[in-house]
Amino acid sequence: SHQTLCLCLPHIWGHRQFHVNEIFLKIPTYPFYVAAPKVLDYNITVTPKDSTTVEMEFVPIAGVNRYIIRSLDPADPTFFKEDEVTSSPAEVTGLTPFTKYEFSIMSVNDAGKSQPTLPVTAKTRM
Fold first, then answer.
1. What b/e string do you get for 24-61 counting C-beta neighbours within 10 Å, with b at 16 or more?
2. Most confident of 9-13, 59-63, 83-87, 109-113
3. Which of 89, 12, 75, 85 is nearest to 45 (CA)?
4. Is residue 76 a part of any domain in this protein?
5. Using 50, 70 and 90 to split pLDDT, how confident is the model at 22?
6. For the domain that residue 100 is a member of, what is the CATH number?
7. Phi, psi at 43, each rounded to 5°
8. Is residue 20 over pLDDT 60?
């Protein structure tokens, strides 16, 4: 008998080794699929800390390894910044004083990342 393995989707496997004609093969013993996180309502709160930093608070999601905070300046289409964080609250630094930004969050796990949340607007201090 033989077994066929299709690697069409991201998998995490337990493995069992066996010997066939001097070649060691690994076959899955229990496949399960890891799906990319869905966009969820994080109840995002953004608070200006100083002229170049804001603090973001959100509700962490089980099964998520990290988060990407996206910062956009609606008045400057060339400004685009992403910061990777692992917990909440998180600081976003390197912003321009007294500037209005749109912030969104993407959650990331082993299978990929979610779409960004709806943006939350906040302005840095002067």
1. eeeeeeeeeeeeebeeeebebebebeeeeebebebeee
2. 83-87
3. 89
4. yes
5. low
6. 2.60.40.10
7. 50, 60
8. no
Structure tokens at 49: 């800390």
* Residue 21 resides in a domain: no
Domain total of the chain:
1
Which residue from 28, 46, 39 is spatially nearest to 90, judged by alpha carbons?
A: 46
Q: Are 110 and 12 in contact (CB under 8 A)?
A: yes
Give the other-Cβ count within 10 Å of 19's Cβ.
Answer: 8
Is residue 85 domain-resident?
Answer: yes
Nearest Cα neighbor of 71 from 84, 62, 61 is 84
Give the structural domain span for 117: 45-123
* 29 falls within a domain: no
What's the pLDDT tens digit per position in 48-89? 999 999 999 999 888 899 999 999 999 999 999 999 999 999
